[in-house]
Design brief:
It is a single chain. The chain is α/β, with parallel strands linked by helices. The chain has ten helices and twelve strands. Strands 1-2-3 form a three-stranded parallel β-sheet. Strands 4-7-10 form a three-stranded antiparallel β-sheet. A two-stranded antiparallel sheet has the order 5-6. The C terminus is likely disordered. The structure holds glutamic acid. The site of glutamic acid has 7 residues, from loops.
Length: 298
């Protein structure tokens, strides 16, 4: 077999809780794929949501990874240090006509979708019906000047037009939830006009993530298969922002005995709880299904 190319991978948790077995699998997978070819495994803390993120969870991430033996390369990047860069990119998209302010409340969106005979469906339910896309520039300015709370949305159709309608793709080296693997066609409209600047934060997960994967020189994005669908919109964002295009490796999720994916509420599946119960790092990685992964070492 040809040797694996040196990849730059990353583990990008949010410090809104302690790490659980699913995180252990994600980190071990990213680290193995980097180290197998002599590449780099980076750590990024996705802490844009100050209301949900806490310093003790940030410290817990570093502690749990160190205890598991999953050391990372170089400095840790914290998204909270990059808010100005995200806001500048958002402003640029707006100026290019690729984003628009959205004044809708959640209740208004729900009511509008209920009134539609066939609400457009995305991977996570109905997608935004596009109500604020049609507002005139004058109306937008007036409402912003009046201090009306608003989010910013990506105008997906305008992005597709700006790219001249050229189809986009991405390479999947793992598997999506429906077994997707190999070259994938991007479906830009899949999730509709997603939020790029949250009403409460001014920024969002999708925008911050593609900008940071670019900044950190990530060549292979590894993460759970629940984020496979997000790749479509993230790939579109990379194209309109002129960012580097990584390959993708989605992996299966760690599930509980009932087949449910682990969540923050599963406190007994937290690394710290398993450690306190007397398990060794190797036992925890084996429980996560990452037993062989950590073996590719240093
Ligand atoms: N912060 C994201 C999460 O914890 C990671 C996103 C990604 O790896 O692409 O779900």
């Amino acid at each position: 077999m040809a040797p694996a190319p040196p990849e730059t991978t990353r583990f990008a948790p949010s410090p809104s809780g302690r790490l659980h077995l699913g995180h252990a699998l994600a980190a071990a997978t990213a680290r193995r794929l980097a180290r197998a070819g002599g590449g780099r495994f980076l750590l990024r803390i996705e802490d844009i949501d100050a209301a949900r993120c806490r310093p003790e969870f940030d410290a817990g991430i570093l502690e749990d990874l160190a205890w598991l033996g999953l050391s990372w390369d170089g400095p840790v990047l914290r998204q909270s240090t990059r808010l100005d860069a995200y806001r500048a990119a958002l402003a640029e998209l707006g100026a290019r006509g690729l984003g628009y302010p959205c004044f809708c409340t959640r209740a208004e969106i729900v009511a509008e979708l209920a009134a539609m005979s066939a609400a457009p469906q995305g991977p996570e339910g109905p997608v935004y019906p596009g109500s604020c896309r049609a507002l005139s520039p004058a109306e937008r300015e007036r409402r912003i000047a009046a201090g009306e709370p608003h989010a910013w949305r990506l105008d997906v159709a305008a992005c597709v037009a700006a790219l001249g309608g050229h189809p986009l793709g991405f390479e999947e080296t793992g598997r999506g939830p429906a077994g997707e693997t190999g070259q994938q066609e991007v479906l830009p409209l899949l999730s509709g006009d997603v939020v790029l600047g949250r009403k409460d934060l001014g920024v969002s997960y999708h925008l911050a993530l593609v900008m940071d994967d670019h900044l950190q020189g990530v060549t292979l994005v590894t993460r759970g298969e629940d984020l496979f669908a997000a790749t479509h919109i993230q790939r579109l964002l990379q194209a309109v922002l002129g960012l580097g295009v990584p390959r993708y490796h989605h992996h299966r999720l760690v599930r509980d005995a009932n087949g449910r994916r682990l969540a923050k509420r599963d406190r007994d599946r937290e690394i710290a709880a398993l450690r306190a119960a007397g398990l060794a790092p190797g036992d925890v990685l084996a429980l996560a299904g990452a037993g062989g992964l950590a073996a590719v070492d240093s």
